[in-house]
Amino acid sequence: IFFMCVSSDTQIITIDDTGGLGRRFDGIGGLSGGGATSRLLVNYPDKQRNEILDYLFQPNFGASLHILKVEIGGDAQSTDGTEASHMHNSWEENYERGYEWWLMVEAKKRNPDIKLYGLPWAFPGWVGAGTRSPYTNPEMTATYIIKWIQGALKYYNLTIDYVGIWNERSYDIKYTKVLRQMLDKSGFQNVRIVAADGNWTPVSTDILKDAELASAIDIIGVHYPGTNTIADAVATGKQLWASEDYSTFNDNVGAGCWARILNQNYVNGDMTSTISWNLIASYYSALPYDRDGLMTANSPWSGYYRVESPIWITAHTTQFTSPGWTYLGKKQGVQFLPGGGSIVSLASQDRMDLTVIIETMSHNHSLCIRPFLPPYEVRQQNITIQLKGTFAKVQKLYVWHSKLSFDDQQPSTLFENLGPFHVVNGELQIYLGIDEIYTLTTLATGQKGTYTDPPAPTPFPLPYMETFEEYKENAEPSNFAQQTGSFEVISLKYLSSPVNSGVMPFSSSLHVLRQVVQQPPVAWCDAENVKASINIIGNSSWTDLYVQVDAMTGQVNASDGVFVATRVANLGCEAFEAVGVFFFLFPDKKKYEVTGDLARTQLIANGNADAKTGWNTLGLLVKNNLAVGTLNGQELFGLMLPEKTSKMGFAALGTGSFGIADFDNFQIRDGK
Ligand code: 147
Fold first, then answer.
1. Antiparallel, parallel or unpaired: β 219-223 and 239-246
2. For residue 438, what pLDDT is reported?
3. What is the spatial distance between Cα 622 and Cα 426, in angstroms, rounded to a whole number?
4. pLDDT tens, 61-96?
5. At 44, is the pLDDT very low, low, confident or very high (cuts 50, 70, 90)?
6. How far is the CA of 242 from the centre of ligand 1 (A)?
7. What is the C-alpha to C-alpha distance for residues 563 and 579, in angstroms, rounded to an integer?
8. How far apart are CA 425 and CA 515, in angstroms?
9. CB 240 within 8 A of CB 220
10. Residue by residue, what is the 3-state secondary structure of 109-132?
11. Pocket of ligand 1 (CB under 6 A)
């Protein structure tokens, strides 16, 4: 690999730390959330779950990430599901919900130096103070966010390093200043604000106009910048981040995208951190943005997962740098290469160590989901690296190599250790092919971590029974993927509380699943326009199925009704038009409805139902074009489905409006 390409000239690249360095490097990160992207990870068997976490976070093993960014759950849809809020209502707080606390703890266990960054997509309705904006009462919203930061410290000993404003929605100058002041007053002077997790403007121009705002914001974070920055952003003097980027299918083109932007976000755009949406694709593949993570783990019932090529692209940078390292100056080891591609060079704080990353990704092999990538050419080339300044004395460089293959007959080389190469008179010559990544480093560390192959994938297991008994309170049950509303396991002791006065528990069971959202959220997308809740599970290609659940709406602030459903499709932010075969029961009205959609615009049948006060058992069998419903074991309807009804999809349960409902003894059986 290290031979000269005979007929072409060599271009000299000087790597030199004299005459000015570049910016501080802040690290490479992954984003869990925005939303529910780690949903299926938590219930993997322990062995595989630990392996996956090692591939993501263990230093010198795999992606070895420097930053973990997580969603601050808002009980609302934020792309692949809804994440639980620590304050469903203004009068309560809870730090046991969801899986981001767990994930942050696991990341810190592996890398105590990993930086943590929290950002809300949506907020519980009450944070809007009667409006659909989180900025109506800035002090209240800041209190809500600071409680999350305090909870992290108090219950998990997690120090949050960065906090954002509102993902890809309007940011607010007043709120940003209030958040800064209240963070400082709460002892969180070290929590730095990233703004505005959207576009370069107006935040950059606002910072230039407003000294108080400028001192409140530490980092300008933008999404999908296409490696470009703007002059106003540079003029602020702030650190610039691609605080969300990538979101590309994790095959080799995705890996090429990631390799290109990891280098060029700095070479071209002065950005000193790039964060991948998402960290790991742990959501059902029928949900939006299938496999847009650094690796894939969406089959917890089998234990199957895949370490995809973006993990090894990440390793090329992360295993040989740390936040606090410094980029060298432009044209001093940070530049585009003459034949196409790019090089970045970073030095440790003490300048004892040097890491150089080179990428030669071609246009069609490094397309990202967005924005448009203008055409460019890359050709094979020879370069001569000349080490100057502090690095003139370097004798050898350790070399790691990847070559992404786009030919089925040809395997890719991923993060191959080529060992140390001698630097002769401060020079090293390299032949660069196309679609390659090299790391040259003084560090003798680095490892391509491996575990033995996980079990083979299997389809979602049937029959399936869930009693919710095995979970801790506030947990989300395995394999459920809530799309609107927020569902958590609660203990029977609450069922006898005044909130549920007069309602007797159904069985001797201790735990039930409760939908807790009582009003529309300060939403991130349109999903909640449906004003109903839905929690899906299973397999998106199921056709004939029997589903059954016990449900109860006797509580104060109850939902108007409950449903079970099959063949459910159209989820994520499109859940407002989720389709399927839905069997709704409205216990107070003693009515039922069969509909072809969650919004109940496609009515198939309705009628009276002899619903009990308290718990009712709903059963729904859908087979070919027949649907049969039972209520408490008695047949309630048997009908033919209209031709346009959804033909396949997930099983689901949920509520007809926002409001509390409890579910228990959920069953799925093959309907064939
Ligand atoms: C981002 C979101 O922040 C993420 O939660 C996730 O939805 C991600 C998926 O690619 O996208 O939101 C964007 C959605 C659309 C655009 C940019 C960001 N867009 O069309 O430019």
1. parallel
2. 98
3. 73
4. 999 999 999 999 999 999 999 999 999 999 999 999
5. very high
6. 13
7. 13
8. 69
9. yes
10. HHCCCCEEEEEECCECHHHHCCCC
11. 34, 78-79, 167-168, 223-224, 244, 247, 277, 289, 369-370
In sequence order, which residues have a C-beta less than 8 Å from that of residue 450 and are 6 or more positions away? none
Give the Cα separation of 257 and 392 in Å (integer): 33
Query: Which residues are within 8 A (CB) of 144 and not within 5 positions of it... i.e. 6 or more apart?
Result: 87, 123, 127
Token pair recorded at residue 24: 């501080």
Between CA 475 and CA 482, with CA 481 as vertex, the angle to 5 degrees is 80
ipTM here:
0.96
* Cα 118 to ligand 1 centroid, rounded to whole Å: 17
Would you give the DSSP letter of residue 330? Answer: B
Ligand 1 center to 483 CA (angstroms) = 17
CA 93, 96, 97, 98: dihedral to nearest 10 degrees? 140
pTM of this structure = 0.97
pLDDT digits (tens, 9 = 90+) for 25-40: 999 999 999 999 999 9
DSSP H or E stretch at residue 355: strand 354-359
Q: Which two tokens stand for residue 583?
A: 């069997």
Q: Tokens for 652? A: 């689901």
- Only one residue has tokens 């228990």, namely 664
349 burial (CB, 10 Å; 0-12 / 13-18 / 19+) is exposed
Q: Taking the CA atoms of the chain, what radius of gyration do you get in angstroms?
A: 27
Distance of CA 246 to the CA centre of its chain: 11
